[in-house]
Amino acid sequence: MQETKTFKKIVLAYSGGLDTSVIIPWLKENYPGCEVIAVSADVGQGDELDGLEKKALATGASKLIVLDLKQEFVADFIWPTLKAGAKYEGQYLLGTSFARPLIGKKLAEIALAEGADAICHGCTGKGNDQVRFELAIKGVAPNMPVIAPWRTWELHSREEEIDYAEAHNVPLKISRETNYSKDKNLWHLSHEGLDLEDPANEPQYDKPGFLEMGVSPYQAPDTPTEISIDFEKGVPVKVNGHALDPVSIVALLNAIGGKNGIGIIDMVENRLVGMKSRGIYETPGGTILYKAHEQLETITLDRETMHYKAVIAEKFAELVYYGQWFTPLREALSAFVDKTQENVTGTVKLKLYKGNIIPAGTTSPYSLYDENIATFGKDQVYNQADGAGFISLFGLPIKVQAMLKEKLNG
């Protein structure tokens, strides 16, 4: 322990998992007399919140504040990212990434309201989340000190954390054998650690309890499931013709997608801090929504906007992954994305089958697809002879370059 400051009231980001369960008694030991206010953000992790108040109080917290952030999480963080089509390194649908800025913002607001003189989180010094939390905190409370025990304490592994917990009578829901590092919210579930740390190891998809949001494609039904999703200006509003609120849409598609083995990603990603890490992500509903949204954009966006938006999507994903949600650039990119979504309204039909998402028809009142122009049959709209002049002008630079080569070589 290298800390020298004394804090009287500390707000702790509290999930009830291994790290934060150990941190409460650790804070009480290392900052004698301090009050620890535990804050849990409900972003859809379900029964993980059960019994948290009793546990937090029993381990030394003065109180537990539980925030229901599910609607705000979907409407203000997930939907803007979905509309952008942002995927980190082409695969990761940013489930942990865009939850952290929201939680960090709320931690800072509570710390200011409670008169706290520090905020604490359980992120490791190797991970991305420390950056995401602390950048969000800086955006609300720029001068608030942050305590990150993993960067200073004497515990150097999750096994040592378990030893500490057992020595301090801290109840845990995990064992040494099932000690995967997991993060769960309404959008996704991530798995890291243990056998997954070696990319050569195949994930144990069929092992009971490994997958939590669905089944592997091998165990999915032998018949496809048909669904339809309606969008208005890029935002999902209906599933199978029924209007639903944002949280209900994600929850329903998670159930449908999970049953069909949709949205399981195994990837080695480049962390912000510089190392590579391997993780398994379950994002059934999100994977369906991304596919449906992409399908709708194919008929509602013009070519130049679609191609440039793909460039924006990559940068948008990086900003989210790097914890830079509350930045002028992210806000500017969202403004651009919102403009592109003005006509992304319509219905997408899909078939889900053993991990696959199969397009089954897309319609929109703003469709740019004109069958009269696109047809290979006879039409009265497109003059095919115009192609010769177009190619002549479009290919002029190539022709000039080739003529120069002939001259120089001649």
Structure, described:
With 410 residues, the chain is of the alpha/beta class. Among the domains are: 9-71 and 95-179, HUPs (Rossmann fold, 3-Layer(aba) Sandwich); 188-301 and 343-363, Argininosuccinate synthetase, chain A, domain 2, CATH 3.90.1260. 40% of the residues lie in helices and 19% in strands. It contains 13 helices and 14 strands. A five-stranded parallel sheet has the order 3-2-1-4-5, sandwiched between helices. A five-stranded antiparallel sheet has the order 10-9-8-13-14. Helix 1 (18-30) crosses helix 6, helix 3 (70-84) packs across helix 10 and helix 4 packs across helix 5. The longest helix is centred in the C-terminal third of the chain and has 19 residues, at 303-321. The protein is elongated, with a radius of gyration of 25 Å. 37% of the residues are buried.
Protein topology:
Layout: E1 9-13, H1 18-30, E2 35-42, H2 52-58, E3 63-68, H3 70-84, H4 99-114, E4 118-120, H5 129-140, E5 146-147, H6 158-167, E6 181-184, E7 189-192, E8 225-232, E9 235-239, E10 242-243, H7 246-259, E11 264-270, E12 276-282, H8 284-300, H9 303-321, H10 328-340, E13 346-353, E14 356-363, H11 371-374, H12 386-394, H13 396-409
Parallel strand pairs: 1-2, 1-4, 2-3, 4-5
Antiparallel strand pairs: 6-7, 7-12, 8-9, 8-13, 9-10, 11-12, 13-14
Helix pairs in contact: 1-6, 3-10, 4-5, 7-8, 9-10
